[in-house]
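REQUEST FORM: STRUCTURE PREDICTION
Request ID: SP-0412
Submitted by: Lab K.M.
Chain count: 1
Length (residues): 232
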Amino acid sequence: MSQLTKLEPEKIIDSVGILEKRISDRFPESGLKDVCHEFLILAEQTKKNINYISKPNIPLKVFSYLIIGIGLGSIFFSLSFINYKVNTFDLEQVISLSNGLLNNLFLIGAAFLFLVTMESRIKRKRAIKSLHKLRVISHVIDMHQLTKDPYMHDSTKATQNSPKRMYSKFELQRYLDYCSEASALIGKVAALYAQSLPDEVIVSSVNEIEVLTTGLSRKIWQKIVVIQNSET
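STATUS: Completed
RESULT:
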């Protein structure tokens, strides 16, 4: 895959870092700044995870195939001690031996499959854990924008239990815009896992995060449009 047709972790991390600085400059005391900082840490960790996932785990492969080799050798060694001479034909005995042989072959095959797929399962587990953290951050960002009503700059419509109206119309637009941008970047960080590990479970989890962040961004931009169309 060429550089023009794949996501580059370094550029995504740079974008997250710049977003964090922009939020810190304009809203230094906001909780959104702290969330974006956590997101930046997770994005940097994602790069390490991607590097791990993209490379074969040679020691684990050697260990797995060594155990399989030992297992196969033990099977053939055991077969050499079997007496294959049959003096009388006993159907019940043949059925019993066949069942035992099939059961053993099934268990041996399952053990070999477990060893062969061990590497992919370890990588999948690490990816799923990180994707879960990205999903949580998406919901946290949603909580931060949830109380940012499009009419918060208009103090005349506040009630006793209304959220504090700390931001001007311009500041509220910027705050919501930062939330939308962070949500979009979360989707891009998640896509890095699907790009490096095209596993069905991983791709499904990434798609779920994409749907979540896209819906969140759409909801935020509806608020921004309301603010832009409202009277100053």
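NOTES: Residues 58-116 form one domain.
Reviewed by: T.R.
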